[in-house]
Amino acid sequence: MSAGWVVAIVLAIGALAYFFAAQRARVQRDGTDRSKEVAHSLPTYHGWLAFIFATVPALLVFLVVSSISAGLLDSRIRSEVTAHIADPAAASLSIGIVRNASNALTQLDLSGANVPTSYAALRDMATSAGISLAESGEDYMVPLAAGVNADAGVHKLIGQGLTLLLALAGAAFAYSRIRLRLRARNQVERVVLWSLLAASTVAVLTTVGIILSMLGETIHFFSDVNPLTFFFGTVWDPRFAAAGSSGSEGQFGLIPLLMGTLYIALVSMLFAVPVGLMAAVYMGEYASNRVRSTVKPLLELLAGIPTIVYGIFAVVTLGPFFRDLSAALAGGFSFIQAQSVFTAGIVMGVMLIPVVSSLSDDVITAVPRAMRDGSLALGATRSETIRKVILPAALPGIVGALLLTASRAIGETMIVVLAAGVAARINFNPFEAMTTITVKIVNQLTGDLEFNSPQTLVAFALGLTLFTLTLGMNVYALYIVRKYREQYE
Q1: Is the confidence at residue 165, as pLDDT, over 60?
Q2: Is 443 exposed, middle or buried (0-12, 13-18, 19+ CB in 10 A)?
Q3: Which domain holds residue 51?
Q4: Is the CB of residue 377 less than 8 Å from the CB of residue 302?
Q5: Three-class SS state of 252
Q6: What residues contact 423, with CB distance under 8 A and at least 6 apart?
């Protein structure tokens, strides 16, 4: 029985518990002299309490047992593989082969005496069934994979049995506790409160998890590469080491990537912010309701276009157009390359216009109407009211919109790959090619690689640097927002 069926059965048990518990609470309420005893909670709350007792503990146990089972199976594979292979890189590759062999045995429905004795025989059977396996497997991997599948089956039966028993026990326990004065509503609301608290901590835990996942590998990278060389280096040339080597050949200078990231983001912001902000002012202050209801959805359609489409537009249409235009203006000499900071910035700016305009429009329309009317009543024109009253009052929200826009510009990848190229160099000419941190993260992690050399671990250092950069932008934006909020509130 699959995990989906287990969850479905648990939810069905919870639904039945809800129905019978609510029905019993309703019978008790209707059959009681209300002058002597009044029900504390509605029957619905008794039903939800029974549903919670039947589903929540059971699903938590199922999740915990599944996690423990996965850890035990992974530990067994690692221990037996490392007993045969001492080299960490080769052992990591063999662990992947064992896992693929385990999946192949499951798909082929082979167990016990039906399991082949050699890896070659298993590979031939898998190939005939349309399942691909690695060529370089060894015979000891087959019985290991079969043993792992057998253990997984036992763990699965234990987990499913405990889950279903706990669901039935929880439903029976909740049904037996139904009383007129049972504070079912309070208990249900307490569970909802804890659920909301858990949901609110997801963002914090996600951020912590991202930091921890990158921090360990970043420390590993800096154990091989001097941090000063990374943060202040002006040459990016990782030069991947030969297979099986863990040397730190190459140069890992961050400055060219950081400069390209900020340069392209600056060009895109210089294009997107004026256009988007003026569009927001027009829609919020000048456009009629009919025009606004038509123009705003059309403008926001730009945000739904995939970034790869913008990149294709840049490399096929806009880049060659700028190149040919510069050649025509300079008498045959093309001073704008097809792949350049300027091209990437303009295309990215077009992509960011909906972000700026939509968020800024929401902020501008949220300014109290009394401020507009008061300014106009004092004799100010509409443009003066916008410049001296509405925009200053909406400035904290506009700063937040610009921050979100800048963060997206810094994190963009596909447009930069196609429109700006992959050349990591220090260059102040916006009409030539450069690249960004995100592009090099993708490059360093592309391919069948192992995280055991500086050439791949540098991606985590780049990611942590990018995270720190955006965090600094957030802190500065909060400072600006608080400063002006104190002034206008």
Answers
A1: yes
A2: middle
A3: 3-200
A4: no
A5: strand
A6: 433, 434, 435
